[in-house]
Design goal:
Shape: globular
CATH architecture of one domain: 2-Layer Sandwich
Order of helices and strands: EEEEHEEHHEEEHEEHHH
Strand content: 15-25%
Structural class: alpha+beta
Number of helices: 7
CATH topology of one domain: HIT family, subunit A
Number of strands: 11
Helix content: 25-40%
Length: about 375
């Protein structure tokens, strides 16, 4: 029987986490492509930037000076989107149900990955990325233990196009009294699925993806990274814990190390795609911290690259269309070369360094041999 992913005409796919339908038009991948693939120069960031407000020892806005940190560094966001006490006085009731407001207490923190201004996740050492995972876990425990905090959102916006105001590699953690919209949808879907099937939604989904073996991008003993069946964004990634763990707090030391490993591998492949420091938005979705049991919740993370619109504005002449990324691996397409880059596991900067070393050694041999 023909499965929907083999169909070469327009169809819709259900996202079971949000219960929203996604239009897929694989036949449009045959459109004429006039783009040009050319090298994009890498960002030339220094290891330390004296003007950077996140580098060690530098002054932030407001006069606070960063300590001379050597690992991760956490501080309260100087321009927090949420405040622990947004106002003792509640807003006056609106006379119209169309203009409702309510106070939303919360906390916002910034997590610098390392003192290095120039190293993003795939370029850090395994131990350094494990320290980042440990810091995310500690922040989830600390903030989630506050009485007014019902959800802890760990996320990273990498690159100016994704809203990062500073190139120094960092992530954020927001602790909120309310459940954000997307986790709220996922919470309802996972609860209903557990009640109806007496099984976990993402456990079942991951089991099916492992059987098919068609969309898995990277895997280790404890995590799978795959392109979801319902992907909207080209090169979208869903990262799922193999064991039924509800949050970062439930990971044992081996699983935390494996999470660091899979993060390095996924982000390295993103960088390999266009041989640049690739922008994305990444967020962990984990169980609420409202003090109630949540057997329905399964820890996962979403990676969204900024490629819904033509990438021409961002990556020169490299244009990506909206079809699901799996089509790139299935049939001939002008982006097959990019897909090959994506599947490489070692970071593209290492390959460039090795290439230059090879060229230098070749020149030296020619000189020694009188060439």
């Amino acid at each position: 029987m023909q499965t929907s992913e083999r169909i070469n005409f327009p169809h819709c796919r259900l996202n079971p986490l949000t219960r929203e339908w996604v239009l897929v038009s694989p036949h449009r991948a045959g459109r004429p492509w006039l783009g040009q693939v050319e090298d994009t120069p890498a960002e030339d960031l220094p290891p330390y930037d004296p003007t950077c407000t996140l580098c060690p020892g530098n002054e932030r806005v407001g006069g606070t000076r960063n300590p001379g940190y050597n690992g991760t560094f956490v501080f309260e966001n100087d321009f927090a989107a949420l405040l622990p006490n947004p106002g003792a006085k509640r807003p006056a009731p609106s006379p119209s149900p169309l203009f409702l407001t309510q106070p939303t207490p919360g906390l916002c923190r910034v997590i610098c990955f390392s003192p290095r201004h120039d190293l993003s996740l795939p370029e850090l050492s395994p131990a350094a990325v494990e320290a980042v995972v440990q810091t995310w876990t500690e922040q989830t425990r600390d903030l989630g233990g506050r009485d007014f905090v019902n959800y802890v959102q760990v996320f990273e916006n990498k690159g100016a196009i994704m809203g990062a105001s500073n190139p120094h590699p960092h992530s954020q953690v927001w602790a909120t009294a309310c459940l954000p919209n997307e986790p709220a949808k996922e919470s309802a879907s996972q609860s209903d699925y557990l009640r109806e099937h007496e099984r976990c939604l993402l456990c079942d989904y991951m089991s099916e993806e492992i059987k098919r073996g068609e969309r898995i991008v990277a895997a280790n003993d404890y995590f799978n990274a795959l392109v979801p069946f319902w992907a909207v964004w080209p090169f979208e990634i869903l990262l799922i814990a193999r064991r039924h763990a509800a949050s970062l707090l439930d990971l044992n030391p081996d699983e935390a190390a494996a999470l660091a490993d899979i993060l390095r591998r996924v982000t390295a492949r993103y960088d390999n795609l266009f041989e640049i420091s690739f922008p994305y938005s990444m967020g962990f979705h984990q169980s609420p911290t409202d003090g109630r049991p949540h057997p329905e919740w399964h820890l996962h993370a979403h990676f969204y690259p900024p490629l819904l619109r033509a990438a021409h504005d961002v990556y020169g002449d490299r244009i990506i269309n909206r079809e699901t990324v799996r089509h790139l691996a299935q049939s001939y397409h002008p982006y097959e070369a990019l897909w090959a880059n994506y599947l490489r596991t070692n970071h593209w900067l290492q390959r460039h360094e090795q290439r230059h070393q090879y060229r230098d050694s070749a020149k030296l041999n020619d000189k020694l041999l009188g060439g």
